[in-house]
Every structure is written in C-alpha cells, then in structure tokens.
Design a protein that fits this description.
Belongs to the mitochondrial carrier (TC 2.A.29) family. By secondary structure, this protein is mainly alpha-helical. It folds into two domains: about 90 residues, no CATH class; about 300 residues, Alpha/alpha barrel (Mitochondrial carrier fold). It has 15 helices and no strands.
C-alpha cells in the first residue's frame, strides 16, 4: 500500500488511486516491486516505533512523577488523556527525527521505477550538501556526506549593543506574530477558564463563539495581543541574552560551564520580570475584551473603558499572578530549550553544530522549542487560570479564584488545549527567533555553553 500510495502521490497522471494504481504498479515493477522499499521501511518504522513507545512511556512516567501533583489513579480521565496527548506529542518529535532519513529513502525508492532507482539514489546522495575533504597535495579530495557549516560572516559582533538590538527585534517577531496567530485558540481557552458551564470543551467552545459572535468573534482582542506580546517578546529575548552573558561573566568560565542550567534559569527569570511589566496592561484589556461580550470591540475603546472602570493601576492588578504564570513558564522555556538542544546536538545529531546546515539548526530549534513548550504549559497553568479569572471579574481576588475554581480546577481546567497551543507556540517562537538571528548573521541559540569571556569576534563564530 505504501508503494502504490507514494507512486500515486508523486507522479501525477500515473493513476487516480488504488484501483488502477495497484495493477499498473505490478505491471511496471512486478509483484516483488511492491516490496523493494521494505528494508528502508524497516529502517524507518522500527526506530520510529521503538522511540514512539519507549519515549512515550518514559515521558508519561516522568510527568506523573514530577509535574502532576496527584497519583495517576486519582486523576480524572480528562487529565489522564491530556497527559497521554502531551507525552505522545513530545515522543512524536523524537520519532520524526530518528526516522526521517529512512522516510526520505522510502519515498524516493517508491517514486521511481526499479530500472533507475539505484542510479537516482546515488544521484540523490551526490546532491546532498557536503564539504570537500582536505588532501595532502592541496587539491580537494572526493566529496563526503558531511553537512556543510553555515556561513557566519560576523556581521554583528556578539554581545555588542547591535547584537542585543537584533535579539530584541527577533523577540518582537517571534512572540507578537505567534500569539496573534493563535488568538482563536486563546479566546476559547480564556472562556473555558472563566465559564466552564457554557464552554464545556474545545469544539463546543468554538461552536458557541461562532453562533454568538460569528467568524469575526474568533479574532476579538488580536490588537492588544499583538502589541502586548510584541513588547513582552522584545524584553524577554533581549534581556535573556543580556542576563545570560551577565551572570556567566559573574560566575567565571569554570562555574558558568558547570552550572549553566542555573544561569539559564536566572537569566530567563530576570528577563521575564521586566517583560511582564510591558505585557500586563495589554493582557488585562485582552482578557476583558475576549471574555465579556459587549465590553469593547478592541484596544481603542477597551483600554480607556478599562481605565475608567478600574483606574490606571487596575491594568496591573494581575501583575503578580502574571509573574506567577510567566516566570516559571519562561524559566522552563529557556532552560529546557537550551538543555534539549544541547542533548540533541550531543546524542541525536551526528555532526557538530558548527558543521550543521542552517536548515538543520533551525529544525533543531523548532523541535527543542516544541518539547520545551509542553513542559511550559504544565508548570504555568495554575497561574494562567488565576490571571484569566482576575482580569475578567472586577474586584476579584486570588482567594475568590481558588474558592470558585478549586485547587484541582486551577491545575486542570483548560490544560489540554493550552498544551496544544503552547507547544505549537513555543516551537514556532524559537524557529522564528533563530531564523531571524541566522538572517542577520548570528548563530542559532543553544548547543554550546554560555560564554563567560569578554566579547570578541571569535565568540560570534562559535
């Protein structure tokens, strides 16, 4: 079936589907031709399935051991399904990585006739990016299958004011655009947290919004979302790079390398304290616009109406819960991302980072960001429920939220949707951020220990 499927998909005009595709394939290749990709298929599926089940079991066990405060047999079915989905999502990232080379081979073999498969396979390998091997007579030896190093022309000196400005710009793009793009999901999530009796599930939540507000209702609050998270992203990424370097210099080279995870945690926490001050006013208006139909159409009328109702300081009444949500979130986001990326370059990628292509480096950034995002959603979810509750109800307190939602509700209400949203969001953010860094001539994030030495052009080429 895989053989016929690939041929039908990759050769327009070969066949319309299985009914005419199968006999035509057998006539062209013979019955045994249906199995010519069996060995590469084993090469794809066996490592994939080993990774799929082993990593899933391990991740789920770790989540129940370290992230879920209640024993599994006391968790409700919704939470258990959420854990299964999160564990499966993370496992899927690793599955894709380990099985991808064989997947390319399977598709290639089944897309070509047997008479030209060997020649075209060799041609495919010869077209792979490679570096010439050095030779003793000064002439390049025959090509190897090593992925070429990215060009790092050193346009921007590492840890210079221009470097931090570039990181700030990358943060604006990565956070502002991604959060704006998931406004419909965020809208349903906020309403599920505030009114679970009305918004009982993801699908019913979308249905309620569509019936009551129409398609345009899905994008209510997109302007404060874009502005607020752009400001937050600027501070988050810009100050993270600054504090990571600052704390590394204080620790010195030896301790910076030895305690790099603590530096990631301290740098990200420091950056997020500043970033949330920039985000908080827009977050307050966004939640009020999204969860109270008729309050305002958007930022232009929502901000003055909010200030008139709550006072200017009311824009910051959710700051402490916002810190409670975002600081653990950001510490997990940066520390786990840096650790995952370092582990991927150490154990999963056979080539040193400085010899990997830019495309591969950006793929690692996206995968690392996706895995980090799942953990981010879990550790920050109780505070996310608090922020939504406080910004929705005038004069509400943390005690009111705990009394109405319950401790269990704080941890679980809206969690599966938020795992999907934050996993996608975080992976996309790291992908965009590192793509921008590559665009301006900087290396991608992670894979090396934080620098503790003074700025120099040599660091820009690491």
């Amino acid at each position: 079936m895989e053989a016929v499927k690939v041929r039908v998909q990759t050769q327009p005009g070969f066949a319309r589907g299985l009914a005419d595709g199968l006999p035509r394939f057998v006539k062209s290749e013979g019955a045994l031709g249906l199995y010519k990709g069996l060995v590469p298929l084993w090469g794809r599926q066996i490592p994939y399935t080993m990774m799929k089940f082993t990593s899933f079991e391990t991740i789920v066990e770790l989540m129940y051991k370290h992230a879920i405060p209640t024993p599994k047999d006391q968790c409700n079915n919704t939470l258990q399904l959420g854990v299964s989905f999160a564990g499966g999502y993370v496992a899927g990232v690793f599955c894709a990585i380990v099985s991808h080379p064989a997947d390319n081979l399977v598709s290639f073999l089944y897309s070509t006739s047997s008479s030209s498969s060997l020649k075209k396979t060799l041609d495919l390998l010869n077209r792979s990016p490679s570096l010439p091997l050095p030779s003793t007579d000064g002439v390049s030896a025959k090509r190897s299958f090593v992925i070429p190093a990215p060009s790092e022309p050193g346009k921007i000196e590492m840890y210079s004011p221009t470097f931090y400005a570039a990181c700030t710009a990358g943060g604006i793009l990565s956070c502002g655009l991604t959060h704006m793009s998931v406004t419909p999901l965020d809208l349903v999530k906020c309403n599920m947290q505030i009114d679970p009796a009305k918004y009982k599930s993801i699908t019913s939540g979308f249905g309620v919004l569509l019936r009551e507000q129409g398609v345009r209702g899905f994008f209510r609050g997109w302007v404060p979302t874009l502005l607020g998270y752009s400001a937050q992203g600027a501070c988050k990424f810009g100050f993270y790079e600054f504090f990571k370097k600052y704390y590394s210099d204080i620790a010195g080279p030896e301790y910076a390398a030895k305690y790099k995870t603590l530096i990631y945690l301290a740098g990200s926490a420091s950056a997020e304290v500043i970033a949330d001050v920039a985000l908080c006013p827009m977050e307050a208006v966004k939640v009020r616009v999204q969860t109270q139909p008729g309050f305002a159409r958007g930022l232009a009328d929502g901000l003055p109406r909010f200030v008139k109702s709550e006072g200017a300081l009311g824009l910051y009444k959710g700051l402490v819960p916002l810190w409670g949500r975002q600081i653990p979130y950001t510490m997990m986001k940066f520390a786990s991302f840096e650790t995952i990326v370092e582990l991927m370059y150490k154990h999963a990628i056979p080539t040193p980072k400085d010899q990997c292509s830019k495309t591969l480096q950006l793929g690692v950034s996206f995968a690392g960001g996706y895995v980090a995002g799942v953990f981010c959603a879990i550790v920050s979810h109780p505070a996310d429920n608090l922020v939504s509750f406080l910004n929705n109800a005038k004069g509400a307190t943390v005690g009111d939220a705990v009394k109405k939602l319950g401790v269990w509700g704080l941890f679980t209400r809206g969690l599966p949707l938020r795992i999907v949203m934050i996993g996608t969001l975080t992976g996309a953010q790291w992908g965009i951020y590192d793509a921008f860094k590559v665009f301006v001539g900087l290396p991608t994030t992670g894979g090396v220990a934080p620098a503790a030495s003074p700025t120099s052009t040599e660091l820009a080429r690491m």
